Amino acid sequence: MNNKLLGKSLIIFSFLSVVLIISALVFMLLEIYLGGRSFLTWEFLTQPPKEGMTAGGIFPAIVGTVLLVIIMSVACIPIGTITAIYLNEYSNKKSVFTRMIRFAVNTLSGVPSIVFGLFGLGFFIQFVGSGMDKIFTPDGELNWGQPNILWASMTMAFLTIPIVIVSVEEALKAVPDDLRAGSLALGATKWQTIRKVVVPNSLSGILTGSILAIGRGAGEVAPILFTGAAYFLPHLPSELTDQFMNLGYHIYVMTTQSTNVEATRGIQYATAFVLLLCTFSLSFTAIVIRYRFRKKLTS
Amino acid sequence: MTEKEIAQKNSLRRKFRLSEFFAEYVIKSVAFLSFAMIILIFVFVFKETLPIFSPQQETKSNQEFLQSETYGEEPGSTSPEQQISEYSSLLSVKRDIADLDNLTGKEWQPVGEVPKYGLLPIIMGSLKVTLIAVFIGAPLAILAAIFSALFAPKKIKELIKPAVELLASFPSVVVGFFALVTLATFLQDMFGWTFRLNSFVGGLAMALAVIPIIYTVTEDAITAVPKYMKEASFALGANKWQTALFVILPAATPGVFAALLLGFGRAFGETMIVLMATGNAPLSSLNPFEPVRTLSATIGAEMAEVVFGDTHYTVLFLIGSLLFIVTFLINAIAEFYVRAKLMKRFRGE
C-alpha cells in the first residue's frame, strides 16, 4: 500500500518537475521578451550606442559577435570534423593514441569557460602575441600582444571544438558499414571512401555540430572577458588586431558596470533578447536537422 | 612465373599511394591537436602560477615581474649579497607576497596596503553556490529524466527533449541577467532579504544551468539499462512504476551519480551567472542568504584590472588552476569510475 503511494507520487512528482522546468524556460523567455519589446526596433539593431551608452542601438555588438563567430568557425569546424573522422574512421579503438585523444576531448569539454579565458590570456596574448611582436616589431610596439578579436576567436575555438567533434562523430557512427564496405569493394581507397561516401552521408551531422558550436560561441562571455571584448568602441573592428564589442559582454557590462544601470534596463533586456534569439534559432535549427536525420536513419 | 602472374599478384597487394598516406597522416596530426590543446591549457595556466611555488622574497617586487619575460622560471639567479641589498632598499615597499600563510587566510583583499589573498572565503563561496545549485537542480532534472524516459508518451517525450536542449543553449550571461534583474528582486520582495543578491539567488539561477546536463546524462543512463531487465520485471507482474523504482533506477544509479558529478563540475566552473547574481562579496559565512564571491567570479571580476605578472595576477591564475584541477578530477571520476561500474553491472558482476 505504501509502495503504491510511493509509485504514484513518483509519477506525479516527475511530471511536476518537467512542468516546472518547461515553465521556467517559458517564463524566462517571456520576461526577457516583454522587458525589451518596446526597444526592439530596426534602429536598435542598426545603430551604434549613443549618449554614453544610454540610447541608440547595439549594431557594433552584433557585428562583433558575428565576426567572432566566423573567425572561430574557420578554426573549430575543420579541426573538429577532421578529429571526428580520425576517431571514427582511422583510429584503432584500443590504441593508446586514440585513448589519449578521446580523453583529451572529454577533458576539454569539461574545462570551465573562465579557464579558457585565462589560457587565452596566458598563451595567445602573452606567449604567441608577444612572441609575434618581438619578431615583427622589434622596437617594442604592441601589436599582437594585446587583447584582440583573433585571440578571442581562437580561445573560443578551443572551447567549441569538442562540440563539433561529438556531433560529427555521432553522425559518422550512424553511416552504415555496408556503404563503406560497398565502396571499398568497388575498388575505392580508404580516403576516397571517406571523401565520397562517408562524409557526404554525414553532412547533416557536420552541419549540426557547426551550428551548435556557433550558438555556443555566440553566447559565451567568460572566455572573451580579457581576451578581446571591449565595453565601447567608436569603430567597427576592421583588422584582426582590433578589439570588438560583443552581445553577451554588452549585457554583462551594461547590467553591472555602466554608470546608470536602471536607466538602460530596456536596452539590457532588448540586447538579451537579441542574443537569446540568435542562440535559440541556431540550436533550434540544429535540433530540427538532427531530428530529421535520425528519422531518416530509422525509417 | 610469367610476367602476367606477377602483375596480377602485385595488383592484389595494397599499393602505396601518396595521397592515402598523406591524408591519413594529416588527419592523424589534426586529431593530435586536441590532445596538444589540453597540454597547452595545462602548461600555460600553471606556468603563470609558478612564482607562488618558488621561494618568494619580499625583494621580488612588481617591477621585476613586469620586466622579465621569464617569470615562470625559478628565481635564484641573484646572489645572496644582492638579495640583502635589495631587501634593505625595498623594506619600505608594500608587502605583496602570496605564501601559504597568506593564501590560507580568511580574508580576500587583493587591493590595499597589505594585500590579503586568503582563498578560504572564495572556496567556501564556490562550494556554497554549487551545492545550492545541485540541491535544487538535481532532483528536478533527475525526476524529469525519469518521467521522460519511463512514463512519458512518445509525443510528450519529443517535446521535453528539445525543451531541455533549448534550456542548455541559454547563454549563461542571459541566465545571469535574468537572475540579477528579475529573480533577485522577486525573491527579495517575497522574503524580505537584507541582501538582494546572495548565494541563494546565484544558486537558484545556476540550477537552471545544471539541469540540462544532469537531465541528459541521467536520461542516457536510464535508456542504457538493458531491455531484458525491464521485460523480466513486467513478466513477473510488476507494473510500470514498480519496474521503474525497483528495477531500472537501481540499475541506472551509477549513471545518475555521474550526472550529479558532472552537474557539480559544471556549476563549480560556471562564471557569468555567479559573477552577476551573487553580490560578489568575499564573506566567509554559511548563511545562504548573504552575498558570496566564488572562485570563477573572482577571476572574472579582477583579471581585467591587474598588472601582468604581479602577485595578484599570479594568484588569479592559481585560482584558475584550482578550477581546472577540480573540474578535471570530477570529470575523470565520472568518466572512469562510473563507466567501469556500469559496464560491470550490465555484463553481470
- Terminal CA distance of chain A: 44 Å
CATH homologous superfamily descriptor of chain A: MetI-like
Q: CATH topology of the largest domain in chain B, what is it called? A: MetI-like fold
**Biggest sheet of chain A: strands side by side, in what order?**
1-2
How many independent structural domains of chain B? 2
Q: Spatial order of the strands in the main sheet of chain B?
A: 1-2
Corresponding CATH superfamily of the largest domain in chain B: MetI-like
Query: How many beta-strand runs of chain A?
Result: 2
Rg calc of chain B: 28 Å
Backbone CA Rg of chain A: 23 Å
Write down the overall mean pLDDT of chain A.
88
Strand count, sense and closure of the main sheet of chain A?
2 strands, antiparallel
Number of helices of chain B: 15
The helix fraction of chain A, in percent, is over 70%
